[in-house]
Amino acid sequence: MRGHCINFAEYWKTTKIYLRIMENKNHAPILPIMLFAIGVITGLTLSALAAWPDFEASSYEFARNTNTPLNGLSCPIILNRNETGTVSLTVSNPTDRLLNPSVKTQISTREEPVSLLESLRLPPGESKKLEWSIGPKNIDLHCFIFAKALVYASYPIPNREATCGTFIMELPLSGTTFLMLMVTLSLAGMGSGLYILNKINRRLERTEMNLRPMYFLATLILLAFVVSFMGWWIQSIVAIVIAVLTSIALFNLNLK
With contact defined as beta carbons under 8 Å apart, do 77 and 179 qualify? Predict the structure, then answer.
């Protein structure tokens, strides 16, 4: 999938599969399970969109200077193709001495990444936030923008570096608005589905409808949101894989 934008036809195809599964379960409450399934699929899709650019950024053509990680680098999660955004980096001085680190930033373009170099003066315990504008000129591999920050050593702190990425989409609205709508749809779908199923259980005194796997799956989706939005793509992939396997097991169980 490297270098190719996501195919949303697969998204709706998966949704139809879930709906067909629900139709085959005549005794199951179709509406709440359908709402829950939509919330799960939306959540998994959004988590994947958030983690994918960070994963790609880790293997982009940026030079590798150190294995010591750098905290504080942040890229927009999603941007409209014609939208501008901001990459930010917060550099802190946790020591009791004056530090004068230099910061080298690289941002992708269609050709070679552009490089910027800044020198900082950080008194003990202070922080400084740096920002760089990104936009259409920084898009590479069709639907990504990548950034890398390298903070050079300033005794006693060694060289540190980090990368991050932004997913670019063809949207009639801003990336932030799209992100908020998707999060809302996912949480509303899972929340309303579980709420209705709980009411049905209490009203009919049904003990055979075990909702614990669904609560577990919803928790996994929330965890995938958190780690993917924070740029922790390894943890995000793990959460997404477990959530997908749980979804398959859960809906296979509903078929029996």
Answer: yes
